[in-house]
Fold this sequence. Notes:
6-stranded parallel beta sheet, alpha/beta, 14 helices, 5-stranded mixed barrel
Amino acid sequence: MQPMRKVYIETYGCQMNVSDTEVVFAILAAHGYEKTEDINRADVIMANTCSVRDNAEQRILGRIEQFNLQRKARPGVVVGILGCMAERMKEALLDTRKVDIVAGPDSYRSLPQLIEAAWGGGTAINTELSRTETYHDIKPLRTSASGVSAFISIMRGCNNVCSYCVVPYTRGVERSRDAHSIVREACECFESGFREVTLLGQNVDSYLWTAADGSTVNFAQLVQMVAQVSPLLRVRFSTSNPQDISNELLEVMAANPNVCRHIHLPVQSGSNRILEKMRRRYTREWYLERVRAIRAKVPGCSITTDVIAGFCSETEEDHAQTLSLFDEVGFDTAFMFYYSERPGTLAARKYPDDVPLDIKTRRLEEIIALQNRKSLEAYKADIGKRFEVLVEGPSKKGTSQDGVRQLCGRASNNKMCVWEDTTHNSGDYVTVEIISCTQATLLGRLIE
């Protein structure tokens, strides 16, 4: 028998890309390809890419150079670029003569044909965006190292068209996946040993699936359906949009202990003027009201965020308002970046990128310094509390200073916990009492 051709994929960017890579592996496995972690044995080398920031694209361009060395050393190897960068750059990637396959996020079903075309010397590009593709009928080939947590894509695309964001141009319009197929996938995950699923979408709160009979399922109802798979299956979700997150969802979270107490709620700026320029469709006041609602309806819920420093025309006053919002909310953690202009976006077409890099950098550093203090405060507030923790596996160090095995896992609030434990394994639930912390980790002791 002819050996199976081997596929190596590097994944960059968001959790949605991780989920997409699992879909790609499943599609290729059905056509006789085998996943490999060794690039030196791969017949097909691909990168699933991100275009949200320029440095993400620059990193991938550097990897293409390394992939090309494999092509030169082993004739017959083909190189593919998938995802958002493929959608944005299209033929320009093929023009480098270092890439054989270019496939956008909605074209993964055609990858077997694109690979064959590349081996035959033909053009191998498909970047057509779809208004219907959700890959709802494909069972992903899970890549989770722990075998504990799984991603489930519930929708694709985005309709918000924030002025700085390239996602609507690279992932197309919003469309929601069949709710019943999502629940089936959650059941399959649980039956396969997974104990946590994360429902993924660019804006999960706008999920709305319409059945053939005209009935609908919104996001709060979907979360309720998935939570009912088993009380032992944790349910997470990402990402929420401040303009859309509903009280109905918060009530579902409060009523179901296995829906995790964590909401990622990107704010991007604390200035109403900048939020309007970003086309975020909410105000600072609306955002703060949603934070108050979350904390009132779901006590103990962790709130994390994204922020952009130095957006077009941002002043020191705008920046001060962002700092004051961070100070008022007290986020548990945050993803913090300075503005990176993305070609083709509304901001790139209409607004000069007029904040100098040194000022962007200084403002970002000030946000980071404030958030580091707030993170430490948030983690210190958990000292003395007891949490149910889902074991993910050994901690990074593996053992304590005394040589005792250490495990790690996340509490419902998404905070990483580390404790000494010689009896439990990945997928177990344990109770941990927090005795100390860093600004990113809770340190505890096992409660038998």
